[in-house]
Design goal:
The chain is of the alpha/beta class and about 725 residues long. Helix 2 runs antiparallel to helix 16, helix 14 runs antiparallel to helix 15 and helix 18 packs across helix 19. It is built from 23 helices and 13 strands. It is about 60% helix and about 10% strand. The protein folds into 4 domains: about 50 residues, no CATH class; about 190 residues, no CATH class; about 190 residues, no CATH class; about 240 residues, P-loop containing nucleotide triphosphate hydrolases (Rossmann fold).
Length: about 725
């Protein structure tokens, strides 16, 4: 649809486009004659969600705008939640039911009368506790929860009730103020006092609910960590007790210190053992050398029984002394053994002197010196043997200690590792608990919503929306009706205008005619247009026929249609009237089924020969015009005086086609109605006709609205204002 077509719809339907919205606006005026006044108040609450102080913030945290927006969404949802609205409604009910008379600071006269109209005094007395607001609220809650159908439930849910939750929610507005931490609440109703108290109850209700909701999150977390901490502590204590009991059962004070001490002691003992072994070897070598020098004396002394007994006894004593020193016996015991050893040494020396009276050896060494040297080495040898025996026994004991300590180390490591794991788990849970408690404290601090602006008492009502409703209703009516007309025009599948003929019928357009029964339509000179268009048709037909067969003495023109009622007879008679003025005579054949035949023919026109023919199955085989004429009733015309044969045939959808004449005709004109839809059945009938036609076939569109004839006629002859001319020029039409 073009802009010109759009504005043409507005102009053509302007009367209804003004009348219908006006009626709608008048109805709104009537319905809003008693529109109640509305009062509105607002309050501002500081939330601290974006810039509030947090004990977990070290100054480096950045604002998470997504989290802030989410927090505001949660807060607004809490404000508008059903239970919050329910609490506000019940408190309003309790406050109003406790009134004995209207109070402009709580409830005006209209509201007081309305609630007493809904509830009588007997019902009110059952709902309240006189003089006690809190207990009245508790009673209302208990009645509400007692069943699914009671008076409190009715007040909360019925749409006609002034305390309906849906009504309170609908009158409430909640929004974040720009990008600040402020939450702006607004409420409107027909009573200024109810406005103020509704917001007060709302702020009180949602602040407590929001704090409880946020607090419950951390309470659950803290309880969880406390349970886990107790469990981790029990496991840690159990592991520590296992480690302690294992040490007690195996006489372990500190495994690492004890193991270190045992290893160091064994190392020291091994060192002493090898030193003593070196002394033993040295003493043996020395004695062997001295005995070689002493030869027979040593054999003699060695064979002496007393001397050998003393040596054995001295050796035993030295073993005991060394053993006592290693195992750290008391000093008195060691001293007694040492005194006894000294006495044996003295006795051994005396015995030796008695049996060795030689002064010098064979190598001229003094015998006494050799004897002393031998004696010294012999004593040293025996002492070393005793000490070595003790060292060997002690080393064997250390091997047993090692075998005992080796498995204890792995067990203790495993137990210590278990204690370490349990300790880490305990510390981790403890850290989580500390964080949860810190966040709990932080939430308790940050959830303190504070009212910045308390709701004020509105003294003046809001500006009435009655005027706006009237204007909106008028505009809505205009838009709805215009949409209906435009939609109908867009969805219209009729041929409607000449420019749609080629798309829908796929035949060339001969011309188009307006409604033939009208002479003037809204200032348009239809008769003038019709005469001009008829002349265009005659000109086109004449030119086309000359091109088809310029030497022909007679032309046959067939006028047909697929359906009836398209104005075919009017067009055919208008054509023959014109053609009769061009050359010789014109024969016009029309069927007897045509209801309006002859109505538009020129009377007393000697050059126009008209014949009515009967429609029967035989016409399908007619070969000439004369076959249509009943020669029994009229004389045969002189065909030499005839220039045009114009044959109107009935609608193709019902009657037979004169096939031979269609094939002979130089020109065929399909008359179509602009106000009818073109269907596939019409296309089928046209295709049947085209199979026969050898001449040109074109379309004459009839019953076209005068304004739509502009593409073939030009500027429509009617009066236009200067504004319409300029507007049409801007929209793409001709200026004149």
């Amino acid at each position: 649809m073009t802009l010109i077509g759009f504005f043409r719809i507005i102009i053509n339907k302007l009367r209804w486009l003004v009348l219908f919205p006006s009626m709608l606006a008048a109805m709104v005026i009537y319905l809003t004659r008693d529109l109640p006044k509305e009062y509105q108040t607002s309050a501002t609450v500081y939330t601290g969600l974006a810039s509030g102080y947090s004990i977990t913030d070290d100054g480096s945290e950045k604002v998470d705008y997504f989290a802030v927006n989410n927090a505001f969404d949660n807060l607004i949802t809490t404000v508008k939640s059903r239970e919050t609205m329910e609490e506000v409604s019940i408190k309003l009910i309790a406050q109003h039911l406790l009134l004995k008379e209207p109070n402009n600071d709580i409830l005006g006269v209209k509201g007081f009368e309305e609630i007493h109209r809904i509830l009588d005094m007997s019902e009110i007395s059952k709902l309240i506790v006189p003089g006690n607001f809190e207990k009245t609220v508790e009673r209302l809650y208990s009645i509400k929860d007692s069943s699914n159908s009671n008076v409190v439930q009715y007040l909360l849910t019925d749409g006609s009730s002034p305390y309906a939750i849906s009504k309170i929610t609908g009158n409430l507005s909640v929004a974040r103020k720009s990008s600040s931490d402020m939450l702006e609440l607004g409420y409107k109703t027909n009573d200024p006092a109810v406005c103020v108290h509704t917001l007060k109850f709302l702020i009180e209700a949602f602040a407590i609910r929001y704090k409880n909701i946020k607090g419950s999150e951390t309470v659950n977390v803290v309880n969880y960590f406390e349970e886990q901490l107790n469990s981790a502590f029990d496991r840690l204590q159990g592991s520590e007790n296992k480690l302690r009991d294992y040490g007690v059962n195996n006489n372990i004070i500190s495994y690492s210190e004890q193991a270190k001490f045992v290893a160091e002691s064994k190392e020291d003992l091994s060192t002493e053992f090898y030193k003593e072994k070196m002394k033993l070897e040295a003493a043996q070598k020395a004695i062997a050398r001295i005995e070689e020098k002493m030869s027979s004396y040593s054999d003699f002394v060695s064979s002496n029984v007393d001397l050998m007994d003393l040596r054995q006894e001295l050796s035993n004593l030295n073993y005991k002394i060394t053993n006592a020193q290693i195992f750290k016996y008391d000093i008195e015991s060691i001293g007694a053994l040492q005194d006894k050893a000294d006495k044996i040494k003295i006795e051994l020396k005396e015995k030796a002197r008695e049996y060795y009276e030689f002064n010098n050896s064979i190598e001229w060494v003094p015998q006494e010196a050799l004897l002393n040297e031998w004696l010294s080495k012999a004593l040293e040898l025996e002492e070393s043997k005793g000490r070595l025996q003790v060292f060997e026994d002690r080393l064997k004991q250390y091997d047993g200690i090692y075998k005992e300590f080796a498995p204890l180390g792995s067990d203790i490591s495993r137990l210590e590792r278990e204690v370490g794991v349990q300790e880490k788990q305990y510390l981790s849970v403890l850290h989580g608990l500390n964080l949860a408690r810190l966040r709990q404290q932080n939430l308790e601090m940050s959830n303190q919503l504070k009212t910045v602006d308390n709701p004020n008492f509105p003294l003046n009502p809001n500006a009435s929306k009655r005027g706006l409703l009237i204007v909106v209703s008028f505009i809505a009516g205009f838009v709805i009706l215009l949409s209906y007309y435009v939609g109908g025009a867009i969805l219209d599948n009729t041929i409607k205008s000449p420019d749609r003929v080629a798309k829908m019928i796929d035949l060339p357009l001969l011309s188009a005619f307006p409604e033939h029964d009208l002479k003037i339509v809204k200032g348009v000179k239809v008769e003038e247009m019709r005469n001009s268009l008829l002349q265009q048709v005659i000109n086109t037909i004449f030119i086309d026929l000359k091109k088809i067969d310029p030497q022909a003495k007679r032309y046959t023109i067939i006028i047909f249609s697929t359906q009836s009622g398209v104005g075919k007879s009017y067009f055919a008679e208008s054509i023959v009237n014109k053609l009769s003025r061009i050359r010789k005579k014109v024969i016009y054949l029309y069927p007897e089924v045509s209801a309006k035949s002859g109505k538009y023919l020129e009377k007393n026109n000697s050059k126009l020969l008209t014949y009515k023919y009967k429609v029967n199955d035989g016409i399908i085989d007619y070969n000439s015009v004369l076959d249509f004429i009943n020669l029994a009733e009229t004389a045969s015309p002189d065909m030499n005086d005839v220039s045009y044969n114009v044959i109107e045939i009935p609608k193709l959808s019902k009657y037979p086609i004169p096939a031979n004449l269609v094939e002979q005709a130089q020109y065929s004109i399909l008359v179509a109605d602009a106000n009818r839809s073109w269907t596939s059945a019409d296309n089928f009938l046209i295709n049947t006709y085209l199979k026969l036609a050898s001449g040109k076939v074109s379309v004459l569109l009839n019953h076209v609205a005068p304004d739509l004839l502009e593409p073939i006629y030009g500027e429509i002859p009617k009066r236009r204002s200067e504004i319409r001319k300029r507007l049409k020029s801007l929209l793409g039409g001709d200026k004149y």
